[in-house]
Amino acid sequence: MISELRISWCSPRSLGGASRHARSVRILVFLAAAFLCAPPAAWAWGCEGHQVVALIAERNLTPHALAMVKQILNDSPIDPSLDRYCKNGDVDAMADASTWADDIRNLRPETAPWHFVDIPLGTSHGDMAQFCGLPESCLTWAITGQIATLRAQGIDPKKRADALRFLIHFVADLHQPLHTVTNNDQGGNCVPVAYFDALPQLRNSVTEIYAPNLHGIWDTNILERMTASKTPEQVAVELERSFRWKIARWQRSTADVNQWAWESHKIAQETVYRKLPVPIRAAPPQPIKSCADDNHIATRMLKLHEWLEQPYQNVATPVVQQQLAKAGTRLGLLLNQLWP
């Protein structure tokens, strides 16, 4: 498999007019990087992204909303025996709660479809319900459901805390563009890419999943590269400062979850896919269960030789920054409406 990927990704066409020696050196570097630098399976926005969204929201809560959030989370804390993917436990309760929904997916598999809404690439409008697949099985429905639970009277404290943790997480998911789109590719999970020096490697021969892939890059790699060694707190403060005028406008807007989904979907179409080195067009929609379906979509996408380097990073960085700032602001808006 390694030699096959080397031939595909390090062909003379990919490396331009480089000398034979330069090509050989770069091939060796990339092969080593494929083992050392290929990212692990990613969660939406990763640890840092979700925590940044929660921290921005927290900084924009009314005193009453902030007190309610702290009380709900403190009265029903996360089970300490739960295996947490994000190990930095020094963040505050709201930031810590932001990644809980990913941690419990194995324990509560029915929640897995709540993290995304599969709007086919190329779609510009429609009733959001038609993209949920089955009742109670998509991101926009899940957000609406958690808000209803938090508004209800006499709810069990644990269920109330779970609803808050879901809401904190899902609003962030909604602003990751690849959580609102599919092109028979599981939101870009079936699109292998090279990202700087990391070459795509086959991680599962049955499902034909590769890493890096387009979804994972948008989940974690773009954000990690643009923030370097900054803490989530530092990133949150910087984003709030950079977007302070837009944040004021977003805070005055109407809370419309479906409209937010369409907004993210448009970004997926116009930036995530269209700005790729080899732009990917919309395919006729069909259901898939893995990246081996649709005539082995991941293998077909691998042959596009998508190599994402600084030009794509430059396009994606301001989009990621704005989506994180917008998600935090809008999460704060929803919580302030719950507890004025």
* Count of discrete alpha- or pi-helical segments spanning 4 or more residues: 15
Number of domains: 2
Q: What is the fold named in CATH at topology level of the largest domain?
A: P1 Nuclease
Distance between the termini: 57 Å
Q: Which structural category fits the helices and strands?
A: mainly alpha
User: Could you name the CATH class of the largest domain?
Assistant: Mainly Alpha
Estimate the mean pLDDT confidence.
88
Radius of gyration: 20 Å
Strands of the widest sheet, in order across it, are: 1-4
Assess the beta-strand content as a share of residues.
Answer: under 5%
The percentage helix is 40-55%
The CATH superfamily of the largest domain appears as: P1 Nuclease
Describe the sheet with the most strands.
2 strands, parallel
- Tell me the overall shape: globular
Structure description:
The chain is mainly alpha-helical. 54% of the residues lie in helices and 3% in strands. The chain has two domains: 1-36, no CATH class; 41-338, Orthogonal Bundle (P1 Nuclease), CATH 1.10.575.10. The chain contains 15 helices and four strands. The strands form two sheets. Strands 1-4 form a two-stranded parallel ribbon. A two-stranded antiparallel ribbon has the order 2-3. Helix 5 (63-75) crosses helix 15 (310-338). 43% of the residues are buried. The model is unreliable at 1-42 (pLDDT under 50).
